[in-house]
Write a structure and sequence with these properties.
This protein is mostly helical. It is 83% helix and 0% strand.
């Protein structure tokens, strides 16, 4: 960072971002200008203060060097803070995108499951309705036959037995259909649970990969910043 009196180069209104090489160049230029300024400040005919053995006192140079090093460290800290803020924003963007994708997948699964349930209920409802209608029709026919054949015992007994057999068959069919319905519901619920579990596992894997990727990128950028800063300090 040069002296406070130097003019900044570049277009007005746009802050210039110094690269590490430019910082080293500015540091050397600042040293040269400080050296010239110190030479000019010495009146003619007077030599600078000389220690024993003919060497200049290094107090001013050390102070200037300390100020430059402090400025470099401050810029180094600012670069690291900028990198951390950029990574934080990128992490938030990645997390929001991942959560949005996961929500869309879960909503799609819920919608598909709801449609499948409705279709299954509708199919079995129609079958149950048909069977109950047939059962009601059979019962009505049985009652009519019983009323017609009340005076004929044998015929009535025969028809009654046939009616009981038919009803038993209907009940057996209903029981079998109900068991198939329960089995289908159980299989459907298991399938839905497996789909949800798979979606959750996939989300966990994606989040783990995302975190690992962001950590690697952050480490790489931080190492690059450290190398550039050390290069600017050393060279």
């Amino acid at each position: 960072m040069g002296p406070s009196g130097r003019k900044q180069s570049g277009k007005p209104g746009k802050p210039s971002r110094e690269e590490p090489g430019a910082r080293a160049h500015n540091f050397e230029a600042a040293e040269r200008e400080d050296s010239r300024a110190s030479d000019e400040d010495v009146p003619e005919g007077k030599s600078p203060v000389i220690e024993k053995h003919g060497k200049k006192r290094p107090a001013g140079i050390v102070e200037d060097m300390g100020g430059e090093v402090q400025n470099i460290l401050q810029r180094f800290g600012a670069d690291i803070n900028k990198a951390i803020l950029a990574k934080k924003k990128r992490l938030e963007m990645y997390a929001k995108a991942s959560v949005k994708t996961s929500n869309q997948k879960i909503e799609y699964l819920w919608k598909t499951q709801k449609e499948q349930r409705q279709k299954l209920y509708q199919d079995y409802y129609q079958q149950f309705l048909t069977l109950f209608q047939q059962w009601d029709t059979d019962i009505q026919k049985t009652q009519e036959q019983e009323e017609k054949l009340i005076n004929i015992f044998r015929q009535q007994q025969k028809i009654f037995q046939q009616s009981r057999i038919v009803q038993s068959q209907r009940l057996k069919t209903i029981r079998q259909l109900y068991e198939r319905f329960l089995k289908s519901i159980e299989e459907l619920e298991k399938n839905h649970d497996n789909l949800l579990t798979g979606a959750q596992d996939e989300l966990k894997k994606e989040m783990a990969m995302l975190q690992k990727k962001i950590m690697m990128e952050t480490q790489q950028q931080e190492m690059a910043i450290v190398r550039k800063s050390l290069h600017s300090v050393l060279f």
